[in-house]
Amino acid sequence: MTVAELLIGSVILPRIESPKAISRLAEFEWFHKLDMQNETLTPEVDDLLLRAQKVHQFIEEIIKGLGIPLRVGIIEILFKGTVFKKKKYEIDEIENMITDLEKTPDIISKAATMLEENANINRSLEEYRTLKDTLKVANKLNVDLSNFGLMNHFYTNLFVINSSDYGEIERTLENIPIFKYDLESKEKLAIIIISDSDDSVKILKIMRSFNSNPFSIPKGFPQIPSEAYSLAES
């Protein structure tokens, strides 16, 4: 019989992404959620809470994305009056409500798809703007990116970073020359790092910890910065 070592892991992520993370983790058959040490919760109630949270976050994300106000409409109050909602429910009533909510109506699924497509488009546009801005910097400096990288005695490269990370990167790479270039997007910066070749591994590790890799012109673009920038601007 095969024996596998069991490990306890913690996942830290934005609350809005937890339903997707739970679904992905559940694909592993040996993944089990750790039971809460709480005398007031039974396994049944705990499972209902988890299901309710997933449904709530899914619907909440759509409501916020569409900018729908979280209040009862005036017309509904005029026709139906003020509704006094029930405050105490049996477990089976809660389970039935959650089951009904989990049967996502087609209109909600379409709204979720539309929001996801919109987010992907915005992300692509932002990546394109950053690419264009960085190529503009390389073009102005007349930089040949093919000469960047590790040389016999020096290492130099161009990176695009979050503006908020610059101070920490500068402190971490103390005594290593860093040249900063503002981009049109206030959230991003382009930096050129020049160092001894011995520091190249250290620099790459540090920059990767800030989710930044050496800048390269994407495939499909001319590999000469001036030509790539002209194409991006057209």
Short characterization:
With 234 residues, the chain is of the alpha+beta class. The protein is built from eight helices and four strands, in the order αααααββαββαα. It has two domains: 15-103, no CATH class; 129-233, Alpha-Beta Plaits.
Alpha carbon gyration radius: 26 Å
Mean pLDDT: 78
CATH architecture grouping of the largest domain? 2-Layer Sandwich
- Envelope shape: elongated
Percent helix range: 40-55%
Structural class: alpha+beta
Largest sheet: 4 strands, antiparallel
Unreliable parts: none
Order of helices and strands: HHHHHEEHEEHH
Q: What is the CATH class designation of the largest domain?
A: Alpha Beta
Count of helical regions: 8
Distance between the termini: 64 Å
Strand order of the largest sheet: 1-2-4-3
The CATH topology name of the largest domain reads Alpha-Beta Plaits
How many separate domains make up the residues?
2
Portion in strands: 5-15%
**What is the count of β-strands?**
4
Description:
The structure is a single chain. By secondary structure, the chain is of the alpha+beta class. It folds into 2 domains: 15-103, no CATH class; 129-233, Alpha-Beta Plaits (2-Layer Sandwich), CATH 3.30.70. Helices cover 48% and strands 11% of the residues. The protein has helices at 18-26, 43-66, 74-80, 91-102, 106-140, 166-172, 200-209, 225-233; strands at residues 149-150, 154-162, 178-182, 188-196. Helix 2 (43-66) packs across helix 4 (91-102) and helix 2 (43-66) crosses helix 5. The mean pLDDT is 78.
